[in-house]
Write a structure and sequence with these properties.
Elements (H helix, E strand, L loop, with lengths): L4 H15 L2 H21 L1 H12 L3 H13 L5 H10 L2 H24 L4
Helix pairs in contact: 1-4, 1-6, 2-3, 2-4, 2-6, 3-4, 3-5
């Protein structure tokens, strides 16, 4: 049966959240909580670029970016970044809407996860 974007995003986001190690979960949840606002304030390119830059020193940023790319159906975080940077205006707007939807599901699933 065909599934909606929301259903696919929710299922993949749930898998990603469940795979986050307990030791990294609080930092990951902080990223999930703040990322949609960051996109709205700074734009998708700047938000993804920030995660990519911080991810080289802080693994939780890289993990969140990898999961965002996975929910969006991209090969990996680098491919997502390159696609965002190279996008024409209409494609950029679509990527932004999709990224906000995916980030919303990551945020909801992180809020719902019970950490032991």
């Amino acid at each position: 049966m065909p599934r909606t974007y929301a259903q696919r995003f929710a299922a993949i986001a749930n898998e990603c959240i469940q795979a986050v190690p307990v030791r990294d979960f609080e930092g990951y949840k902080a990223r999930a909580d703040s990322f949609p606002t960051f996109v709205m304030q700074a734009g998708l390119a700047q938000a993804v670029g920030f995660l990519k830059a911080k991810g080289s020193k802080e693994p939780v940023y890289a993990l969140y970016l990898k999961d965002l790319a996975k929910v969006l159906g991209k090969r990996d975080a680098t491919h997502l970044y390159q696609e965002v940077i190279a996008a024409e205006l209409n494609e950029y707007r679509l990527l932004t809407r999709q990224a906000l939807a995916a980030a919303g599901w990551l945020k909801r699933m992180a809020q719902a996860r019970k950490v032991q």
